[in-house]
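hey
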């Protein structure tokens, strides 16, 4: 099923905003455990999904498909951030 343009635009906006959030992060000193950072990132993804859930348009199936795509994209964006955080932890 092809996504509606309005939902594609929302996904694009959400990805840009999420990327800004990730780029603004300053790793804490003292650092939090890796598991805690993973939990925080998962919480951020869930926050974005819940926020954009109310803005998606179309039939329910269309909205669910768009939300799944947004979640996949946000998870993909968060992966390099977590790799970078793991490297940060190893520096201690």
């Amino acid at each position: 099923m092809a996504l509606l343009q309005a939902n594609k635009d929302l996904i694009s906006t959400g990805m840009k905003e999420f990327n800004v959030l990730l780029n603004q992060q300053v790793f804490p000193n003292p650092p939090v455990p890796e598991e805690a950072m993973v939990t925080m990132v998962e919480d951020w993804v869930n926050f974005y999904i819940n926020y954009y859930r109310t803005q998606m348009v179309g039939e329910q199936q269309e909205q669910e498909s768009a939300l799944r795509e947004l979640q996949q994209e946000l998870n993909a964006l968060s992966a390099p951030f977590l790799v970078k955080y793991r490297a940060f932890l190893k520096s201690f």
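The domain at 33-91 is CATH 1.20.58.420 (Methane Monooxygenase Hydroxylase; Chain G, domain 1). The CA atoms of residues 28 and 88 lie 10 Å apart.
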